[in-house]
Amino acid sequence: MKYSVTLNKRCFSLLLLLSFCFTPLSAAAKLVIAQGGASGYLMGHNLPSLALAVAMDADIIKLDVVMTGDNEVIVFGSPTLGRASNVTEIFPDRAREDAQYYVLDFTLDEIRQLTLQDPAGRFPAELSPRLTIPTLDEALALLGALDRSLAKLKKICIAVEIKQPWLHRKEGKDISKPVLSILQKYNYTGQTDNVFILSYDTVELKRISRKLLPEMQMSIKLVQLVESNEGQESMTEEWGEWVSYNYDWMFSKSGLRSLGGTVAAIGLPKYMLADSRGKLLLESFIENAHQLGTMIFTYPVQKDEKTRLPFISSFEEELGFFYFTVGVDGVMTDFCGDAVKYLKKGPTPPTIQMQQGQSVPPSIEMVLDDPLQLTSPAPVLEIKE
């Protein structure tokens, strides 16, 4: 008797989740993702901030990366320098016509002359230490050294977000391959290694998954980030114009299934998960993602009252709402230390009574069958009896 058995990708994904970081994780583990390191305490994307996030026991250290004009990969939260550095003081005449100072227009030597500044104004310049912009190589060297020192206590997990690959492509730059080369240098090469690659750019994730990783004999976990269809994190060229990417297809069952075949997690902004009145918006989507073995992350969860959902009264309450009511697996936050403390003290699910919402927004009801060919057919085992 002969049977065709399709491998259960859900089980395979679950095994990956159980082994990817620190000590073995249960399926219900809740993760603290340190945005730019301990950025709420010491600004973000600098070496001291990364070390502080490790000391605070963040589960995942998230690094944003962009490329300089001389093809160096640096750790910085944006392709433009104006808001988070003193570039206007050091290089006042280097802005483009849109008044922006693009990292791509500066060499690494010039970048090293800059000092980080906090866009949120939490750290007055006159009272702040001189924090500079590191390269990805320098950041991984530091984290690797800490990893070796703390090997018996924990394993440091990193998430590298490639910022706006479309902008780099537009400028004739390939940022993804150098990023992968640097990760490879530090032995981040496999599914069981403590590393994620994140991007809003679905087309680039497809390229990484289908072309670059096989060519470089690597297999790294990928994370699809999602924003509004009017955003600029991911753009595509249509008829000579760059237009915002449309993420709607992902929210159909077939779209989620095809996406889940490539990515380990999906990162959704918190406004997509609950509205201002507390109505849950994507319950079925999260449930279906978990059934496929795909984690759900959300962002940003911050202490600033202005960014908080209106029905939430505190940072801890918002953490509890997203972890336990919405059911996300990980939260990206500037305040990793406080989030870790919240989870360590054994939080209980919030008692807020939420409205039950529809499974997906009505504008997203569509059926697409792997439109970007993100997945390959599941392997088939031939079993004979």
Structural features, described:
The protein has a single domain (2-384), classed as Phosphatidylinositol (PI) phosphodiesterase (TIM Barrel, Alpha-Beta Barrel). It has 13 helices and 13 strands. The chain has helices at residues 9-19, 39-42, 47-55, 87-90, 108-111, 136-149, 165-170, 176-185, 202-215, 253-260, 283-291, 315-326, 336-344; strands spanning 2-6, 31-35, 60-67, 73-75, 157-162, 195-199, 221-225, 235-238, 241-244, 265-269, 295-299, 330-333, 380-384. The chain has an eight-stranded parallel β-barrel, surrounded by five helices. A two-stranded antiparallel ribbon has the order 1-13. It has a two-stranded antiparallel ribbon with strand order 8-9. Helix 3 (47-55) packs parallel to helix 6. It is globular. The model is unreliable at 1-27 and 354-385 (pLDDT under 50).
What is the 3D form?
globular
Q: Main beta sheet, described?
A: 8 strands, parallel, barrel
**Could you name the CATH homologous superfamily?**
Phosphatidylinositol (PI) phosphodiesterase
CATH class: Alpha Beta
Distance between the termini: 5 Å
Helix count equals 13
CATH architecture: Alpha-Beta Barrel
Low-confidence stretches: 1-27, 354-385
Strand line-up of the largest beta sheet: 2-3-5-6-7-10-11-12
Total count of domains: 1
Tell me the total number of β-strands: 13
Q: What is the rounded Rg?
A: 21 Å
Determine the oligomeric state from the structure.
single chain
CATH topology: TIM Barrel
Q: What class would the helix/strand composition place it in? A: alpha/beta
Mean pLDDT: 85
Strand-and-helix sequence, N→C? EHEHHEEHHHEHHEHEEEHEHEHEHE
Helix content: 25-40%
Question: What is the percentage of strand-forming residues?
Answer: 15-25%
